[in-house]
Amino acid sequence: MSYRVAERLIGDLFPFAVGRASSTTRRQLLRRASRLAADFGRSDPPNRDVATSIDLGIDTTFVRSNAADGPRHHEVLIGVGTNDRRQTLKVGTVISASENPHKLIERTLHELGQAAATQITTFTDGDKMLRGFLKKAGIAEDPILDWQHLSRRVQIAKTTAKGLGWLTNAERRARPLIAKTLERLHWKLWHGDIHGARQAMTRVFKLLEPFDIGRTRAQTVLAAKRLRTAMIKLRDYIEGQSAHLVNYGLRHLQKKSIGTSTTEGLANTLVNQRMNKLQQMRWSAVGAHAVVTVRAHHYNSLESAESAQRAAA
Fold first, then answer.
1. What's the pTM value of the predicted model, to 2 decimals?
2. Does residue 102 sit within a domain?
3. For the purposes of burial, counting CB atoms within 10 Å of the CB of 224, is it exposed (0-12), middle (13-18) or buried (19 or more)?
């Protein structure tokens, strides 16, 4: 990488860091994060308009910790809120460095235009801690289970089923039926049909029974065991989250959000690109919190500038 390209990359990651010593960059980063936290805590943001509806997706990711005796990772809370005017706000905080993470959620909704009549829809991956934060933030409505997380678990089972071999005619007949039933299971979940999904899962377990009889090839046995394990995990996940499933197909037709895919994308741009992935850097809770805060503000500023340009055009 040339110095010119490297300088542009650093300028994108830390807009104020180009050409400065690491100690100077760190001091200015912490100072900038403190100012942003103070500004974010003000009672009333400028030009605040009331929103009719707000979609909020929250998720967590991790960065490695530099503490010798402390935790190996710091858990980072990230979120993306979007109101009916398509105004988007990205937020992030290191949970251990924040006294009240739910305050960040409250402030995010407030800046997006929350009012008494605003309809708030939230999405999580099913984590109890995240749902606790939402309740503390005053959101009485139960969050919706993120479709991407649910669909990914079904896809694991479908991919595992493709590795099934067969030795007997019963196994040969069961393989396409298992694949077809898993597709039906995916369809039932897409439409929020919990009863139909349970029936499909029961049928998959029934179809796996011939693979337990007269085994002679270890590879075929292993594939069946993997599929059974994947199905048990999927069944437990669905049963534990059944109260938070909705008709995703209907929401999609109504052009409503069905998950936190934008939040997972935010995890890559806000945290992993700079702090995890190939870099494998170790962070203090304060330092990681400052980086996440500044990067979230940077991306919000860029989106605000782009929105203003589009409005002017």
1. 0.76
2. yes
3. buried
Does a structural domain hold residue 270? no
Residue 232: domain span: 148-244
Same domain, 230 and 302: no
Domain boundary among 244, 267, 293: 244
Kindly write down the DSSP assignment for every residue of 214-271, as one continuous string: S---HHHHHHHHHHHHHHHHHHHHHHHHGGG---HHHHHHTT---S-HHHHHHIIIII
- Say what the alpha-carbon torsion angle 63, 100, 33, 79 is, to the nearest 10 degrees: 60
Q: How many domains does the structure of the chain reveal?
A: 2
Residue 3 to residue 255: CA distance in whole angstroms: 45
pLDDT in tens, 126-159: 889 999 999 999 998 899 999 988 999 999 999 9
- Residue 253, CA distances (Å) to 80, 190, 244, 257, 313 in order: 22, 12, 19, 10, 30
CB 132 within 8 A of CB 95: no
* Beta-carbon contacts of residue 268 (< 8 Å; ≥ 6 apart): none
* Domain CATH for 202: 1.10.730
